[in-house]
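Input (Inner membrane ABC transporter permease protein YejB):
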Amino acid sequence: MAAYIFRRLLLIIPTLIGILTINFLIIQAAPGGPVEQTLAQLEGLSNSAIPGSAGGGEIQSSSNSNDSNYRGARGLDPSLVAEIEALYGFDKPVHERYFQMLGNYLTFDFGKSFYSDKSVIDLIIEKLPVSISLGLWTTLLTYLISVPLGIRKAIKDGSSFDVWSSTVIIIGYAIPNFLFAILLIVLFAGGSYFDWFPLRGLTSSNFDELSLGGKIADYFWHITLPVFASVISSFATLTMLTKNSFLDEINKQYVLTARAKGLTERGVLYGHVFRNAMLLIIAGMPAALIGIFFTGSMLIEVIFSLDGLGLLGYEAVINRDYPVIFGTLYIFTLIGLLMKLVSDITYVMVDPRIDFESREQ
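Output:
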């Protein structure tokens, strides 16, 4: 197993390089980068500096200059355009910027944000507590609800419990998490009915003044509605996956043999079926965790005014903040690959008969 883990860790390097390369090429082809946005703003200021002028103002010294390739640079001094390119690092050839990015990322040097005047790693660390809170609690509650419920539905397949619980699951799955979040705000956050929970933020303004117990209570008070909204959209798929996985195992021959030997239903379920049925559920855990952790929480963060990684990545794409885009992409991809390795290790812990090393030979 140690050799397999070592090989998987080595494979992370070319995988990261490949993903960064593809995204780097896509970004280069996409219009409207940070240089273009800055030039457009300067051109707008230039046009408004003198009413009725076509591009005058103090920053314009060459109104007919066509030396720049940027559409927004019309009427701007070429030296000013060159300064802006150097400011954002676009004064170098594409291949040079690419290899410089790879070299910096090997040492986790992601550079500074174009707009917030902070390093990318500082921004990620600053936003991480919110995403960790949403991701971990949502994942924990989702599995605590879905796995027992899915097992119960498999045991009671076709019963009235299975029918009405499936109805609830379908309704929960059909409602988007952001719509359910708005409904929770209307009902419980001072919208139209009750004012039981706060509307925004992860903690209160006087959080530092509270006692330890008060801080814990305040934290859970703020996180309840966002986590509940996230769980509603996540537990339906996992519940049905658990049910179908257990149903598939329950109908196999080894289960009939175990029953024929006199084992109780509980002994058959948790002694034989559970280990095999949980393999499929464990396989989807990394993808579910990463989805909830980073991408699935973006709308929840916006609605509840939670400043996390999902919101950070969204704003970086809108503003063409390339250091933040590539830095968060690098971190997300690395965590995803490591979680996939953890999933394989968990496979072996659940079922020692699985041998990944022999499969590669």
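Residues 120-155 form the longest helix (36 residues).
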